Amino acid sequence: MKRPFILISILLVCCLTAGFFVCGASDVHGDVDLDGQVTAEDALLVLRASSGTDTLTAAQVKLADVTYDGKINSVDALRILLYISGSISDLGNVGSEEGDDIII
Ligand SMILES: [Ca+2]
């Protein structure tokens, strides 16, 4: 009697986990590729989007605008790289206009 319940529970956990990764949900500012981490890949994706080589979704645009100026350009990519290198400590939170001052 407990076996179906256990199997359904395991299946539910697997589906929820897979759904999280498939959806690529992220609220990490700078995590443009939605893998949960801010890396050079995110900066590259911002550069590609700013040059028109790649297109970002609305959610990705929100995460990519780390300068909070409403534009996606090379300055956003540079700011992500500064964050990765430890030159700045914060990219701010999604929806806020806070973060370390840009030192470019
Ligand atoms: Ca990422």
How would you describe the overall organization of this protein?
This protein is mainly α. 50% of the residues lie in helices and 0% in strands. It contains 4 helices and no strands. The radius of gyration is 17 Å and the shape is globular. Bound molecules: calcium ion. Calcium ion binds next to helix 2. Calcium ion binds at residues 31, 33, 35, 37-39, 41-42.
List keywords for this structure.
single chain; 104 residues; mainly alpha; Type 1 dockerin domain; 4 helices; 50% helix; globular; binds calcium ion
| Largest sheet: number of strands, sense, barrel closure | none
Shape: globular
Radius of gyration based on Cα positions: 17 Å
Structural class: mainly alpha
Give a brief description.
It contains four helices and no strands.
Topology:
Elements: H1 2-23, H2 40-50, H3 58-64, H4 74-85
Helix pairs in contact: 2-4
The chain binds calcium ion.
